[in-house]
């Protein structure tokens, strides 16, 4: 059940990150989900490091850290995906 929950959270975080980032992102949905999962993991690590990983009630700070990490990872990952995909497209045209 843990893996299913990670995929669902990663999917949602990736979509929210894509919606927040200005412009069009070209990475496919499966890659956005992976970026979201990585954002959730990184956000949890940052929250643990700051000391707000577990609070009473809803862990708002942890969710904020997860979302910020997902935004950064989606933006950087999409830039890398676009540059690699662009080089591949240029080789195919030549």
Q: Could you tell me the mean pLDDT?
A: 87
User: Can you tell me the residue ranges where pLDDT is under 50 for at least 5 consecutive residues?
Assistant: none
Indicate the multimeric state: single chain
Find the structural class using helix and strand composition: mainly alpha
Characteristics of this structure?
94 residues, mainly alpha, 3 helices, 0% strand
Write the layout of secondary structure elements.
Layout: H1 2-20, H2 29-50, H3 60-93
Helix pairs in contact: 1-2, 1-3, 2-3
Summed up:
The protein is mainly α.
What would you note in describing this structure?
- The protein is mainly α and 94 residues long.
- 80% of the residues lie in helices and 0% in strands.
- The chain contains 3 helices and no strands.
- It has helices at residues 2-20, 29-50, 60-93.
- Helix 1 (2-20) packs across helix 3.
